[in-house]
Every structure is written in structure tokens, then in C-alpha cells.
Amino acid sequence: MARANRLSITCRGFTLVELAVVVAVIALLLGSLLVPLTTQVEQRNVSQTQRQLDEIREAIIGFGMVNGRLPRPATSPTNGTENPAPCTSALDCTGYLPWVTLGVPRTDAWGKMYRYSVTVDFANSAFNFSTTTVNLKTVQTRDSSGAVGNLATNLAAVVLSYGAENFGKTADGTDVVNSSATNLDEQNNESEFNACAPTANCTNFMSRSVSKNPGASGGEFDDLLVWVPTSILFNRMVSAGKLP
Predict the structure, then answer these.
(1) pLDDT tens per residue across span 40-73
(2) How many CB atoms lie within 10 A of CB 45?
(3) What pairs with residue 116 in β-bridges?
(4) Rounded CA separation 137/164 (Å)
(5) What is the pLDDT of residues 136-150, one digit of tens each?
């Protein structure tokens, strides 16, 4: 009987307290693994989107070298060929990337459609060194004090990814809502691509380091942009024998 009791005590298993401790340890281990994994996924999405943006810029320049002008925006969010009608305004030359015409991805790594704005004079007809440079694009940024300054000027075109958070449209037509009231620089980009506001000519876009801090100057920001400087465009055209 004594031997049986000893066996019973030895084989009684875990108590509730012991199980709780084990569960807590497992939760801590999983938490420590999931955070780096989430960070890795986000970094991969950023890298993938940046690669696509670089490819898109090359495709835009390549289109210009072949056609003597830059492509106009897509006909619609569901039709990726460039709009066949010439732009009559800066707003007409701002919309979605003509992904079919360029043979590039329609969406970024987060499934949002790329936006595109091109200078009217570079999209409607063949350009050259004397092409009128009205309303060329400008990309601005903020310094460490929060002051806004120019990052790049004299740009023929700009392409935007809205990043992981806030704004944008998915390929199935779903609009991504803005969940922040403090992301002023993202709001600027959204306004420029949808209504040419606040400058009313679709020219001033914002690009800066990613920040999830709502208290940062300009608020949260995760937009990704690339642009086509007129200087690089002209140089590539000259190298290809398309100019002068």
C-alpha cells in the first residue's frame, strides 16, 4: 500500500500553478519571436516596394526614350492602359500608374495601387530641351527641426506608394481609410494626388523617413516615392540618340 501511494504521488502530474507558469513562459517566448518576425515582414515589404518603384521609374524613362514623351496616367483604376486623351490640366495628368502600358506591377507589397503624376508638357507631345517647364514637380522633406525644404526639384513625374498605413486603393476597388488625424505630410500627398490641393497644381509632394510617432513633425509617415528628374531624362535621351 505504501509503495502504491508513493507511485501515486510521483505520477500526479502538473498543478494548475505549474501549468500557468509554463503557459506564461511559452507566451513570452512566442512574443519575443513574433515581434522580430513582424519587423522582418514589414522590412521585406518596404524593400519589395522600393525595388518595384525603381523598376517603374526605369519603365517611365524607357517609355520616354521610345515615344519622345512620358506616359499619361491610367485610363481608370480598372484600366491600366494610359489615357489616350491628352491632359488638359495638371489634374488630368495625375491619377493611377498606367501599369499595363508600362508592363509593371499594378500594386505595391501591401496590395495598394501606385499613383502617378506627370507634368503636362512632358506627357502630351514630344519634348526637347526647349519644352515649356510649367508646373514641374517638387518633392519636399523636413529637417531635424521640422522645417520643410526641397529634396528634389525640376521633376517631370512622381510615383507614389501609400505604404502600409492610411490612404490608397486596393486592386479590388477598396479604399483604405485614414486612421490618423496627425499625419499631415501623408494628407498632403493624398490631397495632391486627388484634388491638386493645397497648391492646386499637383506639384508639391512630401517624402521623408518612416515614422510611427504621431507627435513627430508632420506626424506619422510611411509613403514611398520615386521621381523622374528632367536632367536625368534628358541625359538618357541624349545617350540613346533621341535628343537633341
Answers:
(1) 788 899 999 999 999 999 999 999 999 999 999 9
(2) 16
(3) 95, 159
(4) 24
(5) 999 999 988 899 999
